[in-house]
Design goal:
Elements (H helix, E strand, L loop, with lengths): L3 H34 L12 E7 L6 H8 L7 E7 L6 H9 L6 E5 L8 H10 L8 E5 L9 H6 L7 E11 L5 H11 L17 E5 H4 L4 H4 L6 H11 L3 E13 L4 H18 L1 H30 L5 H8 L1 H19 L11 H21 L5 E4 L2 E6 L2 E7 L2
Parallel strand pairs: 1-2, 1-4, 2-3, 5-7
Antiparallel strand pairs: 4-6, 5-6, 8-9, 9-10
Helix pairs in contact: 1-11, 1-12, 1-13, 2-3, 6-10, 6-14, 10-14, 11-12, 11-14, 13-14
Amino acid sequence: MAWEPLLWALGVLGALAFAASIASLVDGVRFRARVLAERVWDHNAFVQPALVLIPCRGADEGFEANLEAILYQDYPSYRVVLCVDSADDPAIEVIERVRARHRLACDIALAKSAPGMGGKALALLGGLETRTTSEDILVFLDADVRPDPRFLRSLVQPLAHPEVGATTGYRWYVPVQGGFWSAVRSAWNAVGLNVFFSNRYNFLWGGAWAIRRENLDRLDLGTLWQGTLSEDLAITAAIKAMELRVHYVPQAVMPTFEDCDRAGCVEWTTRQTAMVAVWGRHIRNFAALTYGVFTGAFVLGILCVVLALIANPFFIIPAALFLFNIPATVAKGEYRRQSVFLGSPELAIPSRVSPPIWAIANLIVPWLILVNLARTRQVRRIEWRGKAYRVTADGLEGTDHRT
């Protein structure tokens, strides 16, 4: 009798946790349905002249192959501008070698100079100064992505609708050697897809997004990007403030071929969380609630198993309810991966992560996210691409080179 109140209390909490797991699975089914719905676009209907801007710093492994893919798009009229920090950047040698093999217009622009602004924003501002009056679409890409030939058409199409302020793709990390921590980073990055069909929580991913010239001209980029390292989140807020939508394009999910070890995985995920913590607090809070429920249910499930062994066997009922989130998380992770491959089939071809490794990686992700959240409760410094940025209540307070 003494255990009954606790049994009932844990039973009610277990039922709530079970309902949350079911809701998560239903969300995965809806995600797949939305991916399928996005396949109706006519990719020949809206192909305005485009300017593609790519900020570059150094020549990382795979950069040449990535640039080749960008210059080989099935798009009738576009120009590529590589935005570098200085005329002696190592990326220039690779750029010159690649563009010598292509007839497509491919230019180089130097970053602007302005205090209190992140290096990527300065590079993009330098590239924007080269745009012409005929280029109606502005596309922003990272240098470490490798799009398929139809990518640009897919990203641009939804801009035909006036209520769409900007379109966005996303990154899919492809482990080159299939290492475990590379799989964890891929799974961690993939959970961001959960919010991309939500008008409230979705955002522009800085590695691949597009906007019509008329909408970009309504933005004061010099002010928006002042004191920010996450230029994509700043643009997201501005687009939504204009009562326009950010539109996610499943066909614009692109591979990044890269491995990492445990330290690299934790460092990268923590830095990404820090950027969101500074400039997207509502997204951080959403993640804290979602993954706090997972870890809390797991702990209570283990507690119920122990109580079933030492006190009352009926505690196995709430234990089963709490621990249902384990198979649910594994199932949703695999379902999400297959849904992404449905939207961008070319991503499945180089995949080296086996289903068991992917399942374990998805179970580690919630705990890693809690570590990231704990380490970024107070963000004072963010290191990125060889530079260290001091963070204040107003954003960035100058930059210095990392030693």
